[in-house]
Amino acid sequence: MVIRAGESITWETPNIYAEPHSVTFLNEIKYFLEFFVPFNVPNSTELQPSDPKISADPFFLPTESSETTKTVLMVNARALIPVVIDSSGKNVTYLQPNSHYTMGGNEKLVNSGWLWPEGQAPLGSPQISNFTITFEKPGTYSYLCNVHPWMSGSVLVN
Length: 158
Ligand SMILES: [Cu+2]
What we know:
By secondary structure, the protein is an all-beta fold. The chain has one helix at 77-80; strands at 2-3, 8-12, 24-26, 36-42, 59-61, 69-75, 83-85, 92-94, 100-103, 109-111, 130-135, 139-144, 152-157. The strands form four sheets. A four-stranded antiparallel beta sheet has the order 3-10-7-8, with no helix packed on it. The chain has a three-stranded mixed beta sheet with strand order 1-13-12, with no helix packed on it. A three-stranded mixed beta sheet has the order 2-11-9, with no helix packed on it.
């Protein structure tokens, strides 16, 4: 896409079937977002599905019995919901679903979260169906889909 400085683009996913995509501007590959990430929790932690009718168990990685923590795979919030990591790489700011963000240009990561067709986000998943960015500075801004990284594009701002 080619736009002029100060213009905005809104991304949405008009599919009729429920498959997510994202719009993810990635400054360095180390900020690529895995969907599932191991987290350590105390051994005493028990997890129950919030709805007992859901057939599910948490996935704990194998551990030695002497360890005081265990490791559970959890969904990465940075992949699922809109987030910005600033140019220092230290400040992580979550945005509201369907946000309008003004691109600074030096962010390490700007991610839309998973964009679903309107009304098709699955149970428990944030209802996100669009993401808008205003580009104020000229330049080329490359992005990809964090769900399908072979889907990519760029915004040329004149
Ligand atoms: Cu995609």
